[in-house]
Each structure stands twice: as C-alpha cells, then as structure tokens.
Design a protein that fits this description.
The chain is mainly beta. The chain has 3 domains: 3-110, Roll (Structural Genomics Hypothetical 15.5 Kd Protein In mrcA-pckA Intergenic Region, Chain A); 116-173, OB fold (Dihydrolipoamide Acetyltransferase, E2P) (Beta Barrel); 180-230, SH3 type barrels (Roll), CATH 2.30.30. The chain is built from 3 helices and 19 strands. The strands form 5 sheets. Strands 5-4-7-8-9 form a 5-stranded antiparallel β-sheet, with no helix packed on it. The chain has a 5-stranded antiparallel β-sheet with strand order 12-11-10-13-14, with no helix packed on it. Strand 13 and strand 14 (169-173) form a beta hairpin. The chain is globular and about 50 Å long. The protein starts with a strand and ends in an 11-residue tail after the last strand.
Length: 241
C-alpha cells in the first residue's frame, strides 16, 4: 500500500487533512501502522527539511537520516516509540516519544542519549538450539546462548536498555512499585511519574492496573499501557508536562 487517506490517518500525524486526499502510508516494519510516523513525514512535516515529498525522498535516499544508528533509505519506513532519529549533517538527534494530548512526536535529545534506546519486553521464549529469545516492542529479537540468572530474571513488561545499532544490553529495569513509568498508550498517553501501586490480581474481565504519581496528579491506567523508563529518575529525556 503506497498511500493512506488523510481522513483515515492517525490523529498524531502532523498533516493537514484538507490539503490533499492521500498521504504516504508506512511500509510493514517494526511498528504497527497506527502507532508510527512514516520517515518521509518526519523529514518534510516535522523537521521541515523539505517542502515537497520528492525533495524529502531525495534526502532519505542519500542515506542522510539515521534510525537507531543505521541509515534508512525507505521513505515509508515506520518510525515509532523510542526510536532515535539522527542527522549527522546537522548534529541533531531526536527520540520518538508520546506527548501528553498530542500523541507520538519528536523530542530533541543530547548526543550522549543517541547511542541507546529503551525497549519493552513483549515476549520471552525458548527457540531452536536451547537458546532463550526476548522480543522487544519494536520487533527486535535478542537471543541468549548462555542462560544466566540475570537473563532468567527478565520478564515481559520489563525494560531493557540497549545500545544502537549493536543491541548490546546496557541495563535492565524491572516493572515494580517505586520505579519511574511512562504511559505509552491510552487516554493518559504521555504522562510520566513514579509508579506507586500495581494491581496484578484482579477478577476477570477486569485487567491489571497501575497507579502513577505525575505532575497532573495521580492517574490510573492499564498495566499494559505503562513502560518503565528509570529507577527513581528517568534514564532518558522526557517531554515536560
């Protein structure tokens, strides 16, 4: 699919609905269709490096835009949560983060943060050869040949800090009370603060809940909607609420 009707586009995209009928649709990739931003829109509509789509395509095809440390030449490439956008020619670095009441957007980050990203563990399973494989929210698969006690302690919904593009594990955050959380989905998307309560044991059809202390006060959301991003303080730069 090459195009997407603007009326049906995700509301977080910075595009004018009445300017044209269609906009670029993201290609299949690491993030869901309605939870990402096509790379062309980032270059043209977010960073304003081009006025027309053809100009943006030329910039992208020259390999001047890095996503997680690698040049990406597909203008439809879906860029999503926690991805790092780097432009070596300008020295700028950005991270894709949810902004309260705006949805996914770019947040400029210092250069020292551009070499790593946080990934939420969504799957953990054994694969061929007796290895253990962990899948992160952005589709990355990390395989462990040696299953140590540290590796065994990794659970779904926890967070790994990895270097990009090498995928070396730099740190681990367990989802528990007292940690710093970020709401990545739902009506309170973009709020962040200390996790003060986790309710895992609920009666069906109720779902596990989490309570956060944020600058907007205490908020309650689904446990699936929170991502741990730090110990007492966040490990990454977050948007001001």
């Amino acid at each position: 699919m090459g195009h997407l009707k603007r009326l049906a586009a995700p509301p977080h995209l910075k595009i004018s609905v009445k300017e044209a009928v269609f906009t670029v649709a993201p290609s299949p990739g690491p993030h869901p269709k309605y939870e990402c931003i096509p790379l062309l829109l980032i270059v043209r509509d977010y960073l304003k490096y081009a006025e027309r789509a053809e100009e943006a395509k030329k910039i992208i095809k020259q390999g001047k835009i890095l996503v997680d440390g690698r040049p990406v030449k597909d203008y439809k490439f879906p860029v999503g949560l926690m991805d790092v956008i780097s432009i070596p020619d300008t020295g700028e670095n950005f991270r894709i983060l949810p902004i309260y009441r705006r949805g996914l957007d770019l947040l400029e980050i210092p250069k020292e943060e551009s070499g790593f990203k946080l990934g939420k563990i969504v799957r953990k399973m054994h694969v061929h050869g007796g290895h253990l494989q962990i899948t992160l929210h952005d589709g990355r698969n990390i395989r462990f040949k040696e299953i140590t006690d540290d590796v065994k302690s990794y659970k779904t919904k926890d967070t790994l800090k990895i270097s990009v593009p090498s995928q070396t594990i730099l740190g681990y955050l367990k989802l528990e009370e007292g940690k710093y959380g970020l709401l990545i989905k739902g009506p309170k998307q973009g709020l962040h603060g200390k996790i003060i309560e986790i309710r895992r044991e609920v009666i069906y059809p109720a779902k596990p809940l989490v309570r956060l202390s944020t600058p907007k006060g205490e908020v309650v959301s689904l446990l699936d909607y929170v991502m741990v991003v730090g110990e007492e303080e966040p490990w990454i730069k977050l948007p001001t609420i």
